[in-house]
Amino acid sequence: MTDRLTPRAREIVTAARALLEEAGPDRLTMRTLADRLGIKAPSLYKHFPDKHAVEVELVAQLLTETAEVLEAVEARAPGSLSALAGAYRGHALAHPHLYCLATERPLPRESLPAGLEDRAALPLLRACGGDLDLARAVWAFAHGMVVLEIHGRFPPDAGLDAAWKRGLSAFHP
Fold first, then answer.
1. Do residues 141 and 168 touch, judged by C-beta distance below 8 A?
2. Are 101 and 25 contacting, i.e. CB atoms less than 8 angstroms apart?
3. In sequence order, which residues have a C-beta less than 8 Å from that of residue 147 and are 6 or more positions away?
4. N or C: which end of the chain has fewer CB within 10 A?
5. Is the pLDDT of residue 120 over 90?
6. How many helices (H) and strands (E) does the chain have?
């Protein structure tokens, strides 16, 4: 995560995040990142060994932000799958390129800060009464809905709020 980075590395990740959010993952290259920072691309390699390392920091940002968003919702509405799903959806839709970068390829678990993935999952796991299978099923539903929404796969007249409500109701014991 960014607190384990040098100030210059944090600046690079901030610029990478801005570039990603503005232009999408295809435009996030070491060359475009260097251009954004006004430096030559080889200078980036003093701080990150490759583009993957920059992307790992972005994934860590998404997981940290997701944890913070879900923890805040959990504090306001303990045990509410609906509130957690709404917050998850809202954060993903507010940062679609970051969400897709972080979730549409294998998770770089070995490179992430210890415990971060678990922290992001804990509010949902607690709302599911500690039932790991149920929490995974709810997450799979939420993730699938978010990805389909981000990629415009629902028809324009689809009642997505109703679909979310109906889908989540299937998980209530």
1. yes
2. yes
3. 100, 103, 104
4. C
5. yes
6. 9, 0
How would CATH label the architecture of 2-169? Orthogonal Bundle (1.10)
Structure tokens belonging to residue 3? 């607190």
Q: What is the mean pLDDT of residues 152-169?
A: 96
24-38: average pLDDT: 95
The position carrying tokens 């996030």 is 28
Q: Which residue has the tokens 């999952």?
A: 121
Residue 69: closest CA among 39, 42, 93: 93
What confidence category does residue 103 fall into, taking pLDDT thresholds of 50, 70 and 90? very high
Tokens of 96: 């679609």
* Average pLDDT over every residue of 62-81: 97
